[in-house]
Amino acid sequence: MIEPREPPAFTAGGWSSSGGLERDLELTDADFARIRELIYRRAGIVLAEHKREMVYSRLAKRLRHHGLTRFGDYLARLERQPEAREWEAFTNALTTNLTAFFREAHHFPLLAEHLRGRPGPVRIWSAAASTGEEPYSIAMTLAETLGPRPREATVIGTDIDSDALARARAGTYPLEQVHKLEEARVKRFFQKGTGRQAGLARVRPDIRAMVAFESLNLLAPGWALKGPFDAIFCRNVMIYFDKETQARILERFAPLLKPDGLLFAGHSENFSYISQAFRLRGQTVYTLA
After folding, report:
1. Which domains are seen in the chain, by residue range?
2. Which of the residues 21, 82, 187, 277 could staple to 254 if both were Cys, CB 3.0 to 4.6 A apart?
């Protein structure tokens, strides 16, 4: 049994007047409100009040990088330079990348059933690709389903987070993450790292070649990619948007889907009451209305 550590001694200082721990950087209520407004305008992300500690910890690295001590100074610098590359770092810092291979596993047999025996090229869009696990899972499903035809299949993976996309393009992941998959899939779709790459696994080149990663902001007035798609995966990203933004994005998805195309949502997302463009087909799976 591990004995609990002795708690550190209490001191008279170290507490702010609001009851929280004192920090080395100054984040005022007005700063936090500005951050919430800026990330909403930039990426459509709605930051709740309880996200203040998360905001502090993630953006503090950017302030220290620039030698700043006040969030107000950092935000002023951002707003003075609307085209600065720091906006990308700001957005990356506040973007959540929680993903896994074959996450919400019931979607992938449905995709396979939908595509099996379908003639012609297949195109799938992963609209929140993050670090690549979802689009690579889609590509693996296509390889398993289409047999000798996977070269006619393309997966487009997009995300607003440039750091996440760089990791996705590399296609390299910790072995413990990959070993959660079935052994047959690990052997077929991954290469085990050796030497300096020990402890890592890389998606095999044939699967990586099926996936194209592109930077895309779902709030941008225009999207560079074109349909039609056999399926769109937009899972666990709408929860960060308000209802108005969700409805606008769904309306823009509709013309990009083939008439019988599928839209996959996250387990906690319900589009039925947001847009009349889609109807529920199954568990978090939608078709055009």
Report:
1. 29-93 (1.10.155.10), 107-288 (3.40.50.150)
2. 277
